[in-house]
Amino acid sequence: MKTKLLQEFSFYDYNEIHIEYGIHSNTYKKNELSKILKLKPLRYFNKGEIYFGKELDEESKKVKKVKKIRQFTLWVYSTENKIKVQRFENHAFYLLKRIRKVKDEIKQLLQDSENTQISIFVYLKINEKYFGLGAESELLKELLEYSNYFEFRNIK
Questions:
Q1: Do the beta carbons of residue 53 and residue 110 sit within 8 Å?
Q2: At 124, phi and psi to the nearest 5?
Q3: Using CB atoms within 10 A of its CB, is residue 59 exposed (0-12), middle (13-18) or buried (19+)?
Q4: Cβ distance 73 to 29 under 8 Å?
Q5: From CA 15, how far away is CA 127, in angstroms rounded?
Q6: Which of 38, 124, 128, 132 lies at a 20 to 30 A Cα distance from 88?
């Protein structure tokens, strides 16, 4: 006889999470960053690529499509859909396991902060009006070693 999950209950203030490891670079392309990090990005674009953005036409007050050129490369790796457990620690350890392997290469990227910015974004779907998140100091300290910037964001 198969059992069926009727209800899921959590004592945590959030029930969805993923972490994104993003690189914003003026000097590297997507393929170079993927080779350095030995990871495939979730999304990316390369400096110099053409894309269509939107702009307000002041005369007609209408939004129009405008051809633009990317001013930097964006490379983003994500833990989303990589693991089933929706806990911050699990996603952080998953990410760290992958980036520890290229620690020296990341340190080199971090040294060139004028041309390359590495950010970690923690996306959470918060269930409560008041929210709290705790983690071991050493875990947060290690994550910070691999980035120039760290931010928590709410998933809507």
A1: no
A2: -130, 140
A3: exposed
A4: yes
A5: 7
A6: 38
SS3 annotation, 81-143:
CCCCCCCHHHHHHHHHHHHHHHHHHHHHHHHCCCCEEEEEEEEEEECCCCCCCCCCHHHHHHH
Using CA atoms, how far apart are residues 152 and 135, in angstroms rounded to an integer? 13
pTM for this entry: 0.83
β-strand partners of 43: 76
Distance (Å, whole) CA 30 – CA 17: 25
Residue 19: which of 102, 90, 75, 73 has the closest Cα? Answer: 90
Residue-level pLDDT, tens digit, the chain, 156 residues: 666 655 444 445 567 889 999 999 999 999 999 999 999 999 999 999 999 999 998 888 899 999 999 999 999 999 999 988 888 899 999 999 999 999 999 999 999 999 999 999 999 887 766 667 778 889 999 999 999 999 988 887
The tokens for 102 are 């290229």
